[in-house]
Amino acid sequence: MQPVASSLLRYRWHGLAALALATCLTALPPVAAHAQSIDLSHGGQITVTAVGGFDWDQNQKKVTAYDQAKAVRGDVTVTADKLIAYYRKKTPEPGAEPAAPPADAAPADKKPDGTGSDPDSSGSSEIYRLEAIGHVHIYTQTDQAWGDKAVYDMDQAVLVMTGSAMKLVTPQDILTARDSMEYYSQQRISIGRGNATVTTNDNRQIRADVLVGYSAPPDNTPKPAQTDAAKPAGGDPLANGSGKLEKVNAFGHVWVRTQTEIVTGDRGVYVPDTGIARVVGNVHITRGPNQIQGAAAVINMHTGIATMTEHPGSRVSGVVVPNNGDGSDRK
Known about the structure:
The structure is a single chain. The chain is mainly beta. Among the domains are: 37-89 and 123-164, no CATH class; 169-218 and 237-322, Sandwich (lipopolysaccharide transport protein A fold), CATH 2.60.450.10. It has 2 helices and 20 strands. The protein has helices spanning 5-9, 17-24, and strands spanning 10-13, 25-26, 47-49, 54-57, 62-73, 76-89, 125-139, 144-153, 158-162, 166-169, 173-177, 180-184, 189-200, 205-215, 245-257, 262-271, 276-287, 290-300, 305-308, 317-319. The chain has a 6-stranded antiparallel barrel. Strand 8 and strand 9 form a beta hairpin. The termini are far apart. The relative contact order is 0.10. This is Organic solvent tolerance-like N-terminal domain-containing protein. Residues 1-35 form the signal peptide.
């Protein structure tokens, strides 16, 4: 006799599987819409499609989509070589009546292949974790992210990406990192770890071992309708939408570049609105062959001028090379 247990818990199907997946695995209840940030914790049902079909593992309660897999929820789209959706029984709200099955749904005691009992076919499950593996691209109308692997926790609204060539792009800035990138959509916090770099859309740049970016709430103010003649030619779909960067905290091997100087130190904070960055701890300011060392510095990213600011009783030291072609009075 051949074993049958695994076949009852795991099976693969093609064709209309995407429709069945979207029907069975509904997501968390929809709430008020958030702007165009990468947030999969809102927006109603998640629809998953794939060229290579699906595996449904009832034992581990997960569905795996293969080959050009795509998940869509509201304005957020995730594409990857493989998508894995983990689901669980949905807790009914107090006083809520059970949802009626669709008119064309299969009987509750049938699997998608027409045999046996299927406890997950009642439409009462919800996706709580989504994994994307291989050539991951996550995007909305305004924000985009790339990486080799991504994990999204629906309950916490947290995205964690790993792999090579990781990048998070918003209308205001670009965040890259070597080790990992995290995005906390409810708190509007972005974290890059490992040679992390933030480059603003006007080419200001700050780099560190760890960068923590804090964004303002997105502007949901309705925009007046534009006629076709009033719309800018070749408009960029990333031109507006998500909240702008309010502050960046930098930790470890901080590196700040202005038009004329490079400033390094142990820790730093940068406020894009003012264009002011402050770096503290073993600070070095380099301008051509000129170098100054101290405990703290304030950098005006608009003017490109860095000023060493010392604590009372401390000293500034450095090397200044005369007649090096720098006409600044600060030599």
